[in-house]
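Backbone-to-sequence.
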């Protein structure tokens, strides 16, 4: 399945969470709604077909597996830099 047909939403609060958690996931129209909501909220959308397929098997509310920490950490670091340039802090404020 192509990554545009699947979407995963992660949440991570560095002061509260050990690892990012899957908070939403879906295929088809649900994926489109997740992506549109992200864009509406000005949340960065990262596209990676292999990664989204790995994350899709994780149950809602569960943390990402250890083997994905480095990959997700790199993405989060990039997103934090983007947010910093927009004048947002880690909490999105």
């Amino acid at each position: 399945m192509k990554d545009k047909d699947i979407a995963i939403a992660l949440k991570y609060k560095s002061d509260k969470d050990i690892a990012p958690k899957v908070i939403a996931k879906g295929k088809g129209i649900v994926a489109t709604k997740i992506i549109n909501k992200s864009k509406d909220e000005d949340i960065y959308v990262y596209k990676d077909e292999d990664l989204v397929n790995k994350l899709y098997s994780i149950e809602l509310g569960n943390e990402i597996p250890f083997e994905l920490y480095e990959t997700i950490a790199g993405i989060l670091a990039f997103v934090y830099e983007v947010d910093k340039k927009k004048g947002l802090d880690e909490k999105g404020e």
